[in-house]
Write a structure and sequence with these properties.
It holds the Pfam family GCD14. Helix content is 30%, strand content 22%. By secondary structure, it is an alpha/beta fold. The strands form four sheets. A seven-stranded mixed sheet has the order 9-8-7-10-11-15-12, sandwiched between helices. A four-stranded antiparallel sheet has the order 2-1-6-5, with no helix packed on it. The chain has a two-stranded antiparallel ribbon with strand order 3-4.
């Protein structure tokens, strides 16, 4: 397959290093630094200076030396590396959760997917890779500042705009029913504070058998979303889980779990759309308290009646930080223009 017909971004992952590319440099102690290659540029540390020109044109996986003889292993950053280091305005969906979303929501090549809560674009990148150029991803984001950061990050990883991606500004539950035909969407992915508010919108656009997956941070959000889905009757019984990743220390016979791990980041909850007019079958279970009392809602809901990041313990992102992240993301895309000039 020639580069002209390669899937979007594929040619960015192949061949020798080119100007404008991000390269991960790992020294002999395992310390990693990511730099954007610029003709005539240099990577400076207290160990000396490494000229970018010594890396440009070299094959991926090469080992290069700086002016004092210290060696570096040069590789292109993986998606997981990029996501954790890219400019961000909001917390990103960690790779471990993005992988679960792609698999458990059955995101397939050519799928029509809508998502809400774009944030910095980390999950959008994974979804675009899964649906491919012939698929469709429509992302909804309430804040233009977040959308700008996401656009910059998506264009950086794919080397330009992705043909399958469309991003809209506005509230998901209001906009999706205006812009998507009823029953036309294969998958719905929500990363937001109150997904239960989107029940009618999701039920309208999601095709029968389609998967709805939610990413929520707290037990209270998880419980309220699950009970709302059960009470609605248009979906299958919801399933919920979380994933934890623990690395291992590997050195000779000293093989043991790492002392630190990526533990709780969020909960995932899935349900599937039933055929129109069908009421779901509820599994038989022992009677338990499933209804929310006024006291429960008072405990969970802030005084103004609106769920907010502060209430759920999330860090509030300042407008200044958002502007800086958007500027950084756009700058990364601009530096990547070297690649296009190099190919011309």
């Amino acid at each position: 397959m020639s580069p002209a017909t390669s899937p979007t971004g594929a040619d960015q992952r192949r061949g020798p290093f080119r100007p404008g590319e991000r390269v991960q440099l790992t020294d002999e102690k395992g310390r990693m630094n990511t730099v954007t290659l610029t003709p005539g540029g240099a990577f400076h540390t207290h160990k000396g200076l490494l000229a970018h020109d010594a890396v440009i044109g070299q094959p991926e996986g090469c080992v290069v030396s700086n002016d004092t003889g210290h060696r570096y292993q040069a590789l292109r950053p993986l998606l997981s590396d990029f996501v954790l280091s890219m400019p961000r305005g909001a917390a990103v969906v960690y790779p471990k959760d993005a992988g679960q979303i792609i698999t458990m929501a059955d995101i397939f090549p050519g799928a029509r997917v809508v998502e809400a809560g774009v944030g910095s674009g980390a999950l959008s990148i994974s979804l675009l890779r899964a649906v491919g150029d012939q698929g469709y991803l429509h992302s909804f984001e309430r804040r233009e500042e977040f959308a700008e950061v996401a656009r910059g990050n998506v264009e950086t990883i794919f080397g330009g705009a992705h043909p399958a991606w469309n991003i809209s500004i506005g509230d998901f539950q209001d906009e999706v029913v205006k812009q998507e035909e009823p029953g036309s969407v294969d998958r719905v992915v929500l990363d937001m504070l109150a997904p239960w508010e989107c029940l009618d919108a999701v039920a309208t656009v999601l095709a029968p058998g389609g998967v709805w997956i939610n990413y929520v941070a707290t037990v209270t959000q998880l419980s309220r979303t699950a009970e709302a889905i059960r009470a609605d009757g248009r979906f299958t019984e919801p399933n919920a889980w979380e994933s934890m990743v623990r690395g291992w220390h590997l050195e000779g016979l000293a093989v043991r779990p790492d002392h630190r791990m990526v533990a709780h980041t969020g909960f995932l909850l899935t349900a599937r759309r039933l055929a129109e007019g069908v009421t779901g079958i509820s599994p038989k279970r022992r009677p338990s308290k499933t209804e929310f009392s006024d006291e429960d809602l008072q405990t969970w809901t802030p005084r103004d009646g609106d769920w907010s990041p502060e209430t759920l313990g999330e860090r509030v992102v300042s407008d200044r930080k958002l502007r800086r992240a958007a500027k950084d993301a756009a700058s990364t895309v601009q530096r990547g223009a070297f690649k296009d000039r190099d190919k011309d």
